């Protein structure tokens, strides 16, 4: 018995964009019917007119930082920003909160803090640290979606990187239960060998995080994954030179996927003003020519998906010196319009954006039975978008706890009119309902 019908002239479905009526019961999509299908008795019709109905985005790379660094962000503010940006599911990274999500006890702490604060659905990645191999299987069984590891320093002392031997040991354990390892791939030796000069010049910072640090780390990772038959995912890929490595490994049967981020796709090194540390992230935003190749790789499928890597901090940690400023860009509320603006200019459609930011990210997390498409049986999670409406980014209008943004003053296309979670409108016209998000666990 349908309770709700969402009708739009443009619904993005796995079979293409078309006029349709989407019926919902118990928070789940029951059918995608022709546009003028009769509204079932007792169902409420929501006519979206010319606005586009998309599946809610699934952002698998978010640093919520709660508890412990809640002044940087928190579940309340992060999930409101996400809802305002058309995101209906996020998966929280295991680091920058205190404690990090590296034991089952710590996972329980995180879940306790998140519960009642989540405006959208929230899941958790676990962390793979030197010395916590014994915790990986219990975390997997407790429902984390996979494990994050660093190969170079993470930026916080409580989350140290894995060396080669520790990586092999963690990866072997994760492969034993067919889990997923997601990796910040920059090689520490290449980083140590790169020119290092602090200060406000972006060119100096860029030189300190060269492409070959990424390329070397990716090469080691895919080689190790191939040996062990393990499933690995390259986080926030920025170096275009690593793309052939990933494509070749995949062609040889290595189970590797890769993501990139809105800032690598929409901002370029050439335009970063000196001293503008709101643009600092690791790996860094690179040159325009590099960006063109990232887009090409999205187009040909070498890069699977686009996620925010939302990693905020307080404004005082984003001042003047690129060497010491916190590395991270806040993107939750702006990722859809930022990516859409650039995508439409490059000839891509909303179907492509949905594939990169919802369908494939849901698949990465194993959530594809529940999330990531407007299709029967999936949760009735939607973003309603006015794709041709433009707005200028006003930092003060962001729901992020800290209003530091690399997108200030940019004009972007794509206004999120409303966001729906399991058939309930949780964001509309700048207003939010009380938190209705659930805490998700990996499907067994
Ligand atoms: Zn990150």
From TrEMBL:
Residues 52-426 form the Amidohydrolase-related domain. Its EC number is 3.5.2.5. Pathway: Nitrogen metabolism; (S)-allantoin degradation; allantoate from (S)-allantoin: step 1/1. GO terms for molecular function: allantoinase activity. The keyword RNA-binding does not apply. Its cofactor is Zn(2+). Gene3D superfamilies: Metal-dependent hydrolases. The keyword Cell division does not apply. InterPro entries: Allantoinase, Amidohydro-rel, DHOase/Allantoinase_Hydrolase, Metal-dep_hydrolase_composite, Metal_Hydrolase. Keywords: Hydrolase, Metal-binding, Zinc. Homotetramer. NCBIfam families: allantoinase. Belongs to the metallo-dependent hydrolases superfamily. Allantoinase family. This is allantoinase.
């Amino acid at each position: 018995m349908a309770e709700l019908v969402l009708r739009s002239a443009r619904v993005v479905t796995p079979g293409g964009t078309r006029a349709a009526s989407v019926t919902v019961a118990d928070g789940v999509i029951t059918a995608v019917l022709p546009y003028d299908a009769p509204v079932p008795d007792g169902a409420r019709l929501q006519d979206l007119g010319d606005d586009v109905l998309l599946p809610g985005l699934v952002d698998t790379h978010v640093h919520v930082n709660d508890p412990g660094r809640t002044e940087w962000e928190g579940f309340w503010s992060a999930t409101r920003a996400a809802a305002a940006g058309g995101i209906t599911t996020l998966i929280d990274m295991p680091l920058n909160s205190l404690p990090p999500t590296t034991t089952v006890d710590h996972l329980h702490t995180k879940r306790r803090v998140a519960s009642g604060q989540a405006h959208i659905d929230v899941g958790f990645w676990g962390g793979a640290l030197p010395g916590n191999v014994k915790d990986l299987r219990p975390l997997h069984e407790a429902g984390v979606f996979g494990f994050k590891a660093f190969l170079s320093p993470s930026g916080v002392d409580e989350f140290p990187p894995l060396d080669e031997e520790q990586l092999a040991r963690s990866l072997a354990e994760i492969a034993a239960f067919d889990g997923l390892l997601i990796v910040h791939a920059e090689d520490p030796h290449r980083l140590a060998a790169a020119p290092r000069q602090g200060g406000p010049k972006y060119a100096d910072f860029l030189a300190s995080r060269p492409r070959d640090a990424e390329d070397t780390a990716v090469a080691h990772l895919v080689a190790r994954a191939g040996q062990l038959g393990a499933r690995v995912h390259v986080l926030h890929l920025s170096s275009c030179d690593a793309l052939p490595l990933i494509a070749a490994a995949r062609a040889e049967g290595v189970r590797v996927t890769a993501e990139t981020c809105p800032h690598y796709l929409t901002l370029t090194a050439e335009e970063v003003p000196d001293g503008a540390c709101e643009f600092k992230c690791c790996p860094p935003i690179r040159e325009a020519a590099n960006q063109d190749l990232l887009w090409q790789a999205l187009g040909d499928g070498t890069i699977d998906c686009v996620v925010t890597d939302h990693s905020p901090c307080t404004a005082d940690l984003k001042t003047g010196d690129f060497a010491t400023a916190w590395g991270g860009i806040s993107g939750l509320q702006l990722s859809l319009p930022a990516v859409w603006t650039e995508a439409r200019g490059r000839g891509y459609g909303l179907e492509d954006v949905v594939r990169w930011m919802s369908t494939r990210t849901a698949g990465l997390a194993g959530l594809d039975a529940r999330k990531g498409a407007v299709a029967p049986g999936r949760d009735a999670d939607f973003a309603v978008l006015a794709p041709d409406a433009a707005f200028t980014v006003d930092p003060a209008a962001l729901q992020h706890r800290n209003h530091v943004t690399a997108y200030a003053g940019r004009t972007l296309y794509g206004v999120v009119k409303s966001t729906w979670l399991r058939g309930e409108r949780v964001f509309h016209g700048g207003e939010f309902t009380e938190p209705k998000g659930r805490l998700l666990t990996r499907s067994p």
